[in-house]
Design goal:
Aspartate Aminotransferase, domain 1; 2 domains; homodimer; alpha/beta; 3-stranded antiparallel sheet
């Protein structure tokens, strides 16, 4: 920065923003690729599964002469398809309960801003989707972590664990099930406990359900929409990114039966005018053809999960439980510092001209010092690649520990 | 709301958000249409000009199997095209000076959040693009208006007018030129005055230049990027919405030569992952073919501006100056309350089964009581429609005043 501008000050929230633990190592990966090293990306939840052809066809079929603003609440055909989708899941909604957002990210930002002011707190089971921190920082709010544990498969914390962290500043409990980054699926009794606790304490309940379909071995991901007794305090945040393997579409939604709240969130929506039009047309087509797609995709992910667990089990000292959902697993690994290890895998290691990129665990914790020995693995690659990626990870751990014992 | 949830409290910022003055009358327009009344939409800057065929072709040509996350800073081909576009305008940038955002809306939100904390203030010439208020509210910051006047063609306020409103809480001056909602184009000396004032007072300078090409009668819209002496304090916010008649694309960008600031803004970008992928591909194609499109579009808008001014001049008591840019005009009209009038035009008036929708002026002011007799007109319709729409507006004013004199 030039002398002329030493007076310039960025905001406190700018300084408080963390660089994405999922993306901050990307420059190192780029350099590895330049050196000719292939990188298996297990760091980011970017599936390799083809987006449904119906979505792509709908995009190509977009024939409007003017690529115009859509309604702030989202285009009606998409809201109708989302309503139908939830109807088929047993949840009766009207289109007015649905606000289309620019991906799940915007849904979370709008929800936080609608219910909290600077300094307010939101309880979140930890580890949690790292960007919750970023969104809370943008809203000048604070994520208060409620611990879950690798050895317990990151099961939902008990009522007491939440209760003892509720203060006069607490505005909501926010959770994600099936969970990113742990793969845990909360039981129905967990969701009911959270609803009852929020009712008792006058809190909002925010549920991130973007991995709804990703539940294995017959597990069911219960929705916050089942909490009919607490319907006014429930805000659900959703996205087509994972469901349709369409992360680049940036189409999500907020669902709530609380009309006053929906009215508020629409005001945020009006300020940013509308979500992207063409991608909404694509998403609507996706919902029209969801059944067959999900039917083939979920067994594929279940198989991948099994492969990852099988290969991780071969790593001496790795600690994990087989997760029931999403497409992540967060093993504890025999490494001194997951951050250093993940970077080293990109800068100093290769096996047969390939390496594996993982997301360091600490970025998924708000509690300092936690996650130091954990990494998040997204099992988003094809069977053979995935197996190879974990095997390379195993070799990397060995080499890393050998190199750092000297 | 049910008795069970009386304890639920929305945030102060939720209550502070204003409903969009551009969009809040939409339900009344919908009802009018249901009654069979055609509505000329002069309320929203949604051009009727066809989006360049090259953009639509690029969208249809999107052949990736997976609609994947893009980079948080935007896809490289688009950033390169934006760099080339600015090169052709005489501004040398690198792709690292460019962060693609989900429309201009997100660019403004990121810029505000990067430079301000709750309670901080931003000086903005008034009237201003109404959503600045919304974005500031989301960031818990405050827009401090600096008045401009219809009789002076809403020219840039003097240095003194800004100076006397700078407090210890002031973090930036934000302006829009060519201006939405007034159509004013700031002179080079205005932009230089703002740069010098910001340097003197240690402020950031935020410039919304989404209407850059929309300058008439040979006027030139000077860019904040010309302020090379103050390059570290300048943040430019841009969008393809108007330039390519592609408002639904939701593709914009932030431009700054301040690397530390770009690093911060990228952290906000990483939190929301990426802008929509397909629409970025379309936007890149737009920039590759911008010249011929702009060459045909700008004379069309100049003609429309002339028609609007010609027809407005026939309304007794209308006060305005012919604006030099953008595609808006903000006349003062002989009506007691622009809000009541705009609603009445939709609920109680029609002329030959048609009516005209305008945006009430007060929504573009932060100062209470201002804009009561002004409306914003977006001249985004074809010649014949536009003339008819203003003629209907004139008849509406007459009928409204007759009805309300009783």
């Amino acid at each position: 920065m030039s002398a002329e501008s030493r007076d310039l000050r960025q905001s406190r929230r700018a300084h408080a923003m963390q660089a994405s633990p999922i993306r901050r190592l990307v420059p190192l990966a780029d350099e590895a690729k330049k050196r000719g090293t292939a990188v298996y990306h297990l760091n980011i939840g970017q599936p390799d599964i083809a987006t449904p052809a119906e979505i792509m066809e709908a995009v190509r079929g977009f024939k409007d002469e003017v690529l115009a603003y859509g309604p702030s609440q989202g285009i009606l055909p998409l809201r109708q398809e989302i309503r139908n989708y939830f109807h088929n899941l047993g949840h009766e909604l009207t289109v007015d309960d649905i606000l289309v957002t620019t991906a799940g990210s915007e849904a979370i930002i709008f929800a936080l801003m609608a219910i909290g002011d600077p300094g307010d707190e939101v309880l979140v089971p930890e580890p949690f989707y790292t960007n919750y921190n970023g969104f809370a920082t943008m809203a000048d709010m604070k994520v208060v972590p409620v611990p879950t544990h690798a050895a317990e498969g990151f099961a939902c914390p008990t009522r007491e664990e939440f209760l003892k962290r509720i203060t006069s500043k607490t505005r909501a409990i926010m959770y994600c099930s099936p969970n990113n980054p742990t793969g845990a699926v909360f039981a129905r009794k967990d969701v009911e406990m959270l609803g009852a606790l929020c009712a008792e304490k006058g809190l909002w309940l925010l549920a991130d359900e973007v991995y709804r379909e990703f539940a294995y071995d017959g597990a069911v991901a219960h929705s916050c929409l089942e909490l009919r007794d607490h319907k006014d305090r429930v805000i659900m945040m959703d996205s087509v990114s994972k469901r349709f393997s369409a992360c680049g579409a940036r189409v999500g939604c907020l669902v709530s039966r609380n009309r006053e709240l929906m009215h508020t969130m629409l005001k945020f929506g009006q300020a940013r005018l509308c979500p992207p039009t063409i991608e909404q047309v694509g998403a609507a087509a996706g919902y029209r053809h969801i059944e067959s797609f999900i039917k083939s995709m979920i067994p594929e992910y279940q198989k991948r999960r099994d492969i990852v667990c099988e290969e991780l089990a071969k790593i001496p000292g790795a600690v994990f439980k087989k997760p029931a959902g999403a497409f992540y697993i967060m093993p504890q690994l025999p490494i001194d510092d997951a951050n250093r290890f993940a970077a080293w895998m990109l800068t100093d290691f290769q096996h047969e001209k390939a390496t594996t990129m993982v997301a360091p665990g600490d970025g998924f914790y708000a509690t300092a010092g936690k996650g130091k020995h954990e990494v998040r693995i997204a099992y988003v690659l094809k069977e053979a690649d995935l197996r190879k990626a974990i095997q390379i990870l195993a070799k990397g751990i060995e080499a890393y520990n050998a190199a750092h014992k000297k």
